[in-house]
Amino acid sequence: MREMKNLREKIRSRTPVVGTFAALPHPMAVEIVARGGFDCLCIDWEHTQLGRERLEDMLRAADCRATPAIVRLPGHDPEAISAALDAGAAGILAPHVSTVEEALAIARAARFPPHGTRGAGPGRAAGYGYGVFDYVARANEEIVVAVQIETAQGLENIAAIAALDEIDLLFIGPGDLALSIGALGDGGAERLDAAMETIIDHCGNAGRAVGLFRPSADDLPRWVSRGASFFLISSDAMLMGAAATATADAAARALGRRK
Ligand code: 3PY
Ligand code: MG
Questions:
Q1: Ligand 1 centroid vs 2 CA: distance in angstroms?
Q2: 193 assigned to some structural domain
Q3: pTM for this structure?
Q4: Which of 6, 15, 63, 76 is the most exposed place for a label (fewest CB within 10 A)?
Q5: CA of 233 to the centre of ligand 1 (A)
Q6: Whose C-alpha lies nearest to ligand 1, atom 6?
Q7: What's the CA gap between 25 and 39, in Å, rounded?
Q8: Is 143 inside any structural domain?
Q9: For the chain, what is the radius of gyration of the CA atoms?
């Protein structure tokens, strides 16, 4: 069997892919979490205070472990898309995408002509100018373009967004989706689950890859059997917090301070 070529090919063929968010804004944290053996990382530029220079160093650190890293953007700005890709990201994840127009604008900004409007330049991804033509020749085939469905409007437009071949992956943000559709309090969990299932089912009908955030791997089998194939589980910051709490609790129990 032919080796899978790249992350995009795995995603588009709906081969299961598991990653985590890199939310600690330091290359060392990226190197450490990449050692864990995830298929990919997603550097979180949306919710982490991160500058462009640091972003590039974090991508460099992911390369040290040969772990493909996509970048969750702070928004839909084409400059941020170019910055992440020029720095060497394997793809982009755009938050809060609610319409076909937004999704298409993001896809165009992420691809070189004739499929888009991205500008070519001597950034890290292009070998600092030594590999511009080679990079341009393969980037449109290799760069992952993913959009987050996490608003009531995105849910409303799901059939049309899922039908877009320009988008490699639809990614559900359960937290924002719950806020946006008001799935909080009594019955909220059931409403949120139903909304997530609707998104997954529409992606299945369109043959589009769909993924979601999960705080842990506990319920992965349920979402895989529904049709999801891409998972970002927890984050380096959350994993560190969970390990710190578990260790402090174990020590407190060992000293008889807590049961
Ligand atoms: C959300 O839950 O809103 C997310 O964006 C998860 O990544
Ligand atoms: Mg979100």
A1: 34
A2: yes
A3: 0.96
A4: 15
A5: 11
A6: 173
A7: 20
A8: yes
A9: 19
Q: What is the pLDDT of residues 133-168, one digit of tens each?
A: 999 999 999 999 999 999 999 999 999 999 999 999
Q: What angle do CA 241, 242, 246 make, to 5 degrees?
A: 120
Q: Of all protein residues, whose CA lies closest to atom 1 belonging to ligand 1? A: 173
Number of structural domains (the chain) is 1
Strand 69-72 to 91-94 pairing? parallel
- 259 lies in some domain: no
- Residue 17, strand partner residues: 230
How far is the centre of ligand 1, averaged over its atoms, from the C-alpha of 164 (Å)? 22
Ligand 1 atom closest to the Cα of residue 176 is 3
Q: Are 223 and 193 in contact (CB under 8 A)?
A: no
CATH code of residue 245: 3.20.20.60
Based on the residue annotation, tell me whether 96 is a catalytic residue of this protein. Answer: no
pLDDT at residue 5, as a whole number: 64
Tell me which residues have their CB closer than 6 angstroms to ligand 1. 148, 150, 173-176, 213
Q: What digits encode the pLDDT tens for the residues 44-100?
A: 999 999 999 999 999 999 999 999 999 999 999 999 999 999 999 999 999 999 999
